[in-house]
Amino acid sequence: MTGMPALEVKLRSMSEKRWDRVANKNLTEMFNRAARPPGTPIGKNTKRHKSGELLRSRRLKKVNSSKDVITGNFGYIKDYAPHVEYGHRIVRNGKQVGYANGTKYLFNNVKKQREIYRQDMLNELRR
Length: 127
Hints:
This is Antigen C. With about 130 residues, this protein is an alpha+beta fold. It is built from five helices and four strands.
């Protein structure tokens, strides 16, 4: 999206607290959306895998501002999260027998939030 960095700079220059509030609201919405279907995919229970581990691995770090650095993020800590997101090879007995397509669960969540985030920033600028 064009103009987003400039909009963020303008909003940040107006008030740090407003910027933090908008960013935290949007991170929290993404975190909560991931908990509801079709947010985070939930696999089947097996001997080696307990279903819902990916969902329970969601992590949210609220925005923290210090000088020129702003940090805050939402993501998953399970080691196989990227394989579910982007896809992976299926290997049996050392041979590739297929490919599992990615579910793009995080990409879709960010895509839904992008316009909400933009609108929230514009609303803060109008205040």
